[in-house]
Fold Deglycase PfpI.
Amino acid sequence: MGKRILFLVGPEFEDIELYYPLYRLQEEGYETIVAGPSRDTLPGKRGYSVKPDLAFEEVDPGEYAGLVLPGGRGPERIRNNEHVKRIVRGFFEDERPVAAICHGPQVLISAGVLHGRRATSYPGIKDDVINAGAVWLDQPVVVDGNLVTARIPPDMPMWMREYIRLLRA
């Protein structure tokens, strides 16, 4: 497990919500691994792309210290993938740090791990988060146990600061 962080990404991910935490975690000495529906290159919403290191089916969640779920359209496109749900549940069962921003909580909703939690997200999915049994808070970052959520790109410095704090604990 050590210092490996897993990113789950789908087509039309929000470019900056993948690359900002990816590079920020690399600066802290973490090895970042990107998983997607396949190993084929995925387009971001704003012109960047990423070539996943692994397909979802290849991921053993026990090999990673933490999980990051970028937003954009990607979460909507991967949320019902059985491997994605298995991976996410593995992190919550072991209470390892999970970071989700913007539409990233859609993946948490489909995995059934938000009930009873406090979280934030892009305001457009507020009702979905509440309907999943979470308390939605309109603030830049919410930390609830192993979960760190944020709303939008300007929240990312606070989001990553809290996430890195959890990883170091």
In short: The chain is about 35% helix and 20% strand. The mean pLDDT is 97. The first helix runs from residue 15 to 27. The longest strand covers residues 31-36.
